[in-house]
Amino acid sequence: MNQLHRHQRYLRSVHHILGGPHVSDVGVTSKEVASMTSVDDLLRFDLKLHLLSTQRDWLHQLHLARRQSMSTTSSNNHHDHRSSSSPPAAPRPPQSKHIHMKKLLEAASWYRWLQQHAHEDNNNADDDDKSALEHLADMLSEDACLSEYVDLMGTNEWRSVIQAQFENLVFATLERRVSRRVDKCGFDAAALYCEPPAAFRDNIHPSQRTKAADYRNVHADWNWLRDPQPAQVMAFVGSLTRHVRGAFAIPDDVHKSLYVFIQRMLFPRITMLCYNGAILTECARKDTLWRSQQAALRLQNHGGGVSLEQLGGSTGTAVVLHDEAAQIFGTTRIPVDTFFPLFSFVLLHTDLPFVHAQLHLLEQYALCNPPGDLNPTRNGEESYYVYCMHAAVEHVCSQVVGPLD
């Protein structure tokens, strides 16, 4: 609503200039008119609104999945301290909690392993490899602890169901103090990005619009929320990870699965903490330029867009695909002279209106190694493709836009 209010005032100012007795600077006025944005585009490309809407949708789906998990589980001891008003059920024995958590993490680890090998199984694996995978699936089906997850792994509900079970177990087991700190972090982070309605804000005297008033509800222990840095966010994630590991005595061999669960539990709740004010403004500015450049390049050559050859590649070299690179080079890292132009061409014709905001998440958080991870990503295959994506975006933005034919 505040964005619409600001847009309305902007349109009134432009209308006042155009309807005035004289126009002082025709050039400036024409640029103002040419740069006008429709209301639909204003809301569609608002980065903060996009992030908050995505966060709301994800949390709503997760809330439904958690409620369904709690209603269908055979045990009603997974009491959620945060959302349920009913009295807590009798606590489960610690050993039972550990077994349940171990089962979840092992199922997630097997699922990830099967995903990584399924492509090989369908394309270039020999009969021995296929039989080994089939034997593994049969073995999981026969396991008393994992059999209930085997059929679920082949459905679209797999991730949401197992994530809901994980969160119900965590919040039912952690101390109230830890659960409340998670809530406090999420609520304060959202409060710092909230604006009062424009009508209310306009009635406040300018002298009363202070940062202290905006941050009055932030707990003293969370001062870093006012200007969050990636290292501080990851320290918070690491702290909760250690709490969960200690509470459930989780071994190192399933640490990767635990970290994935923690990420999917925390980041939807602290989405806005990943972007402090300066980063949010910078990403919005860069993405505006990206969308403008992308639209202009697509209109080149009678609407056919920029060709692959114009981006430094050729159709002949683009035939080197992911699987072929794995067979020929023994790695899925396609040579940069082949991959880079092809990637730039795909990005140019892909609708990614917030690509710089996504790159910020990938570089600052997706490539950040969790404590104890023995497989660093900053020097691995993931970082190779992330930095290729960053370079490809900059390559597209640096292209010279010629006159329309």
If you had to describe this structure to a student in words, what would you say it looks like?
- With 405 residues, this protein is mainly alpha-helical.
- The chain has three domains: 2-44, no CATH class; 60-82 and 93-274, no CATH class; 277-397, no CATH class.
- It has helices spanning 2-18, 26-34, 39-44, 47-72, 94-123, 127-142, 147-150, 158-173, 176-192, 198-202, 211-214, 230-248, 255-266, 277-298, 300-303, 322-329, 336-348, 355-366, 381-397.
- Helix 5 packs across helix 13.
- The radius of gyration is 26 Å and the shape is globular.
Question: Tags for this entry?
Answer:
19 helices
Write the layout of secondary structure elements.
Blueprint: H1 2-18, H2 26-34, H3 39-44, H4 47-72, H5 94-123, H6 127-142, H7 147-150, H8 158-173, H9 176-192, H10 198-202, H11 211-214, H12 230-248, H13 255-266, H14 277-298, H15 300-303, H16 322-329, H17 336-348, H18 355-366, H19 381-397
